[in-house]
Amino acid sequence: MTRSAGLAVVAALAIVFTAGHVAPPASAQAPLTSGGPVSPALLEDLAAAYRVLANEGVIDGYGHVSIRHPGNPNRYLMSRSLGPALVTPADIMEYDLDSTPVDPKGRRSVLERFIHGEIYKARPDVMVVIHSHAPSVIPFSITQVPLRPVFHMATFLGGGVPVWDSRSVNDPDAAALLVRNGVMGRSLAAALGKKPVALLRGHGNVVVGPDIPLTVRQAIYTEVNAKLLIAALGLGGPVTYISAEETAAVEKNPGDIARGWELWKRQALGK
Amino acid sequence: MTRSAGLAVVAALAIVFTAGHVAPPASAQAPLTSGGPVSPALLEDLAAAYRVLANEGVIDGYGHVSIRHPGNPNRYLMSRSLGPALVTPADIMEYDLDSTPVDPKGRRSVLERFIHGEIYKARPDVMVVIHSHAPSVIPFSITQVPLRPVFHMATFLGGGVPVWDSRSVNDPDAAALLVRNGVMGRSLAAALGKKPVALLRGHGNVVVGPDIPLTVRQAIYTEVNAKLLIAALGLGGPVTYISAEETAAVEKNPGDIARGWELWKRQALGK
Amino acid sequence: MTRSAGLAVVAALAIVFTAGHVAPPASAQAPLTSGGPVSPALLEDLAAAYRVLANEGVIDGYGHVSIRHPGNPNRYLMSRSLGPALVTPADIMEYDLDSTPVDPKGRRSVLERFIHGEIYKARPDVMVVIHSHAPSVIPFSITQVPLRPVFHMATFLGGGVPVWDSRSVNDPDAAALLVRNGVMGRSLAAALGKKPVALLRGHGNVVVGPDIPLTVRQAIYTEVNAKLLIAALGLGGPVTYISAEETAAVEKNPGDIARGWELWKRQALGK
Amino acid sequence: MTRSAGLAVVAALAIVFTAGHVAPPASAQAPLTSGGPVSPALLEDLAAAYRVLANEGVIDGYGHVSIRHPGNPNRYLMSRSLGPALVTPADIMEYDLDSTPVDPKGRRSVLERFIHGEIYKARPDVMVVIHSHAPSVIPFSITQVPLRPVFHMATFLGGGVPVWDSRSVNDPDAAALLVRNGVMGRSLAAALGKKPVALLRGHGNVVVGPDIPLTVRQAIYTEVNAKLLIAALGLGGPVTYISAEETAAVEKNPGDIARGWELWKRQALGK
Questions:
Q1: D60: which of A6, C6, C173, C251 is 20 to 30 A away, CA to CA?
Q2: How many CA atoms lie within 13 Å of B97's alpha carbon, on the beta-carbon side?
Q3: What's the helix, strand, coil split of chain A in %, to 5?
Q4: Which of B267-271, C175-179, D10-14, D244-248 has the lowest mean pLDDT?
Q5: Distance between CA B70 and CA B77 in Å, rounded?
Q6: D237 near C CB under 8 A
Q7: Residue B106: which pLDDT band, with cuts at 50, 70 and 90?
C-alpha cells in the first residue's frame, strides 16, 4: 500500500455510497453544505484511529483525530467530544475549515477543533491531523532539549520539531493555553510550517500526514522516539542522532505501513 | 456541565429518594443522626471514583475517596475498609465530621478517615476529598524539589503544593505516619489551607474539590504532571512552568470535565 | 486481623482436614515423613501468593514463595518448578529443611529451594519466604546506593537491607550465582540475619515474614519503595528517609493488612 | 529439557509429518526446493515465539523470529509480513539462505529477512534468529555506554555486545537504515561474530541461539538487563557487572529453561 492509496480509494468510492451519518437531508437549509456522504470504511478507520492511539498510550482522554473530507477539501471530519477509546463511526461530525459544525444535531464539539481546521487551511497536502498529550513528548516542550530522531522508525522528525508556545499569540484567550479559536489555530499552523510534527508547550503535540495509517504510525513513533531519547540522554555522553541523509533515504521508502496499522487496529478493536 | 451542577442536582433529589444504604431506621436511638437518604446515582458515582482512580493508577490498595453528604454538611460518605477496585455503593458508610461512623453495622472503617472529616470542617467549599499514594507524586514529598505545574491539565497546582510532614504534629501517634486521629487530621487540613492539593511526606497526597468529576480529574492530572516534571528535570536545564496568569485563565474556564469522567468510568466499570 | 492470626487458625485446623495433596500414604516407607495434611485454605493462599506477586509485577517467571509447614516446623511447602502465574494448590510440594522433597512423585523442584530451607533453619520466627527478581530492587544490589525506606508502607526496611554477594561464598558453585545448595543457602541466611529483606547482588531479593498476607505486602512495598527512591534520587538533593523512630512506631501498629491481601487476591485470581 | 532437545525431537519427527503449509507440490517446477514438511508442533512454537515476544514487550509491530529448517540447514522459516501478536502457523513461509521465498503464494515477505538468511549462512550453530526494537536496548546503541550484564539471567551478554551501524556498510541502501539486502545482512552478521546478541544503531537488536525457548528467553532478559542497567547507571557510582567467571559458570548450567517458556506461552496464547 502506498502512502496515499487508502484515501484515494475512498475518495473514488465516496460518490457511490449514499448512506452517511453526517450528510444533511438533501433539502436542508443549513448555512453550511456537507461535503457529501463518506464511505463507511473510512469512518470506521477514523474511529479506529482514535482507539488505536488510546490503546497505544499516545492519547489520553482528551486527544482527537480528524481527516479531511474526501469529497470536499474544505470540510473535515472529527468525533464529537468523547473519550477516544469510545469513539465509533456514529460519533463523527463534519466541519468547515473555520471549524463550524455542518450539522451538529445537538452534539458537542471539542473545544480545540481549530487546531484541525487551521492546519487544513494552511497545508493542502495534509489529509489527517492528530492532537495528543503524548506523555514522553511533553518534556521536550518544557525544556530547551530538542526532540530529535534517534530511532529508524522516527526519521520523519529529522527536519526538526518546532515548539509552539500559546503565550506567543496576541489573543485574549492566549493565557488559557487551549487552541479555542481560529487565531490560536492559525498561529499553531504557522509554527508547524511544512513539518509533520509540532509540539505545544506544556500541552502535547500535533502530528499531520497524508493518510490514516501513516499518520497514526508517526504519532506512535514520535512518542516511542521521545521515550528512547529520554533514556539515552539519561545515560549521558554524546547521542548519535539520525542523520539528514538517513531521513531523506527513509522518506523515499518508508517501508511496510500496513503491517502496523492492521495489528494496532486488531488490538484496539478487539478489546 | 458546570463544576457544581452534579452535586447540586443530587442535593435536590436527595429528599426524594427514600431507599438508602446508610440511613439508620427512623426509630434508632443512635447517638448520631444520619444526614438522610442519598441518591443511588451519587453513591454509584462515589463507588465509581474509587474504581476510576484505581484503574488510572492513582490509588493503590490503600487509597480512599469521600463526598460531603448532600443533605447535611456535617456528614460525609466513604467506603468501608476495602480495596478501591472492589468498592460498590453497598460499601459506603456515613460519618460525622469527627469521623465517627453514624451506623457502622459491624463494618470496618479506614484508619485514616480523619483526613476527610477534618478537611470538611476546615473547608466548607470542599465537597470531595481523595487520599492516594500516587507514585509519581511521592518523590516530591521526600526531596526539596517543589511539585509545580508544567502541563495545561494541571494548572490548578499553580498556587503551590504544600508538603505536610507528620513529624511536625505534637501527638503521640505522630511517629506512626498515619492520620489516625483528629489532631493529625487538623494539622494536615491546616497545611492544605485553601489549596486543592497537599502532599504528605513519604506517604502520598490529598486532592480536594467541588464535585466528583473535577476532583477525580485533578487527582489524575496531579499524578500525570508529576511524571512529566520528573522526566523534564531529568533532561536538565531550565524548565518552563505554567505561569500564574495561565493558572488564573484556565481556572475561569476549565474545559470539558464530563468527557474524561465518562471515559474513565466506562473503562473502570467495564472491567 | 493480627499478623499471625492467619497461620494460627490454619495450624489449629490442620489436624482436622484429612485430604491433602502432599501427604504420603500412611504406610509409605519414604525416608522422609510428611508434616501431615494441610488445610486446603492454606494451600489456596500459598498458590494465591504466587499469582498475586506475579500480577503485581514483583516476581517474573522465576520467583517462588514458600510457607513453613503448619504441622511440623521442620518441613516447608512450595510449588514445583512452574511459572508463578500458573500455580495452583495441586502444584505444592513438601520439603524438609535440607530442601529434599518428601514425596516428589516425579515433579521437578526449583533449583534454588535451598534459599527457603536454610532460612527456615536459621529463623524460627519466619513462616513465609519469598524470592523474587523484583526489578526496581536489583539496581540497589549492583551499586553502592543503599535501599532505605522513604515510604510509610515500607518502614520495615528501616533496620537496613543487607546485600548478599554469591561470590563471597566458598563453594564450587558460587560463580554460578544461583543458590543451588545448602552452603549457598546458609550464607544467604546468615547475611539476612534478623532482617525482613535481603538483596542478592545482580539477582533479586528475599522477603521473609510471619504470615502470607503481611509477607506478600512487604514484598510488594519493597518494590514500590525502590521505585520511589530511584525517582527521588533522580530529582537530586537530599532525600528524607523514614526515621528509626517512625519504623519503630509503625512496627507496633502495622495497619490494615487484610485490605490489600483481599484486593490483590481478587485481582490475581479473577484474571 | 536440555538446550537442543526441542529441535532435535522435531527434526526426528519432521520426516513423519506430511501435511505442511510451506511444502510445494511434489511435482512443482519451482526454482527452489523446499526443505520438506515441518512438524506442526515446531510451527506452533515458532508462532508462539512471535506472540510471546510481543506479549513480553520485546517486539513491537515490526519484529520477527525465524528458525532454521529442521530438514535442511539451507532453508529457514519465518512469518509473512504480519504484526507479531497475530502470527499463526499458517503464516509461516520458507526461505533459502539468500532470503528468497521458496513458494510465496502471493504472501508478502518482511523487508529485513536478510538479517536472518545471512546469519544462518555465517553461523552454522544458530538455529533461531530474533530481530526486535526492544526499547530499553536501543539507548545503548545510540550512546557510548556499553550494554553489559548486571543480572544473573543475562550472563550470556558477558562476552560483549557489538553495536553494528548501518552507515558503515558500502551499499546504496545503507542510509535507509533497514537491512534490505544481502550486503547489509552480511555486514550485520560479521559484526555479530560469535556472540548471541548484537545491537543495530538507532534500530534494535538481533538475538540468536540454539532453540526457541532459550533464544526467546535471552531476548526477554536482554531487554530486562538493559532496563536494570539504565536504572543502576541513573543511581550513580560504580556498577557491579557480572564477571567473566560468572558468565562461564552459568553458561555451563543455564538452569530451568522450560519453566519460563511454558509460562510465557500460556500467557501469550491465552490472551
A1: A6
A2: 16
A3: 45, 10, 45
A4: D10-14
A5: 9
A6: yes
A7: very high
Residue D270: per-residue pLDDT: 87
Nearest to A203 by CA among A102, A125, A131, A118: A131
The x, y and z cell numbers of residue B85, run together, are 477496585
Helix (H, G, I), strand (E, B), or coil: what is residue D168?
Answer: helix
pLDDT in tens, A206-252: 999 999 999 999 999 999 999 999 999 999 989 999 999 999 999 88
Phi then psi for residue B206, to 5 deg, are -125, 140
What is the reported pTM?
Answer: 0.90
CB C101 within 8 A of CB C93: yes
Q: Which of A94, A112, A118, A223 does the annotation list as catalytic?
A: A112
D239 touches A at CB < 8 Å: no
Nearest to C215 by CA among C227, C225, C207, C223: C207
Average pLDDT over residues B108-115: 97
Whether the CB of D98 is below 8 Å from some CB of chain A: the reply is no
Q: Is B266 helix (H, G, I), strand (E, B) or coil?
A: helix
List the one residue out of D33, D49, D28 whose CA is nearest residue D92.
D49
- DSSP letter at C147 equals -
B126 touches B68 (CB < 8 A): yes
Sheet of A163-164: strand order equals A92-96, A75-79, A64-68, A128-132, A204-209, A197-200, A163-164
Can you give C209-256 as a three-state secondary structure string?
A: ECCHHHHHHHHHHHHHHHHHHHHHHHHCCCCCCCCHHHHHHHHHCCCC
The confidence score (pLDDT) of residue B251 equals 84
Asked whether the beta carbons of A99 and A181 are under 8 A apart, the reply is no
- Strand extents, DSSP E, A52-113: 64-68, 75-79, 92-96
Contacts with B242 from chain A: Cβ below 8 Å? 177, 202
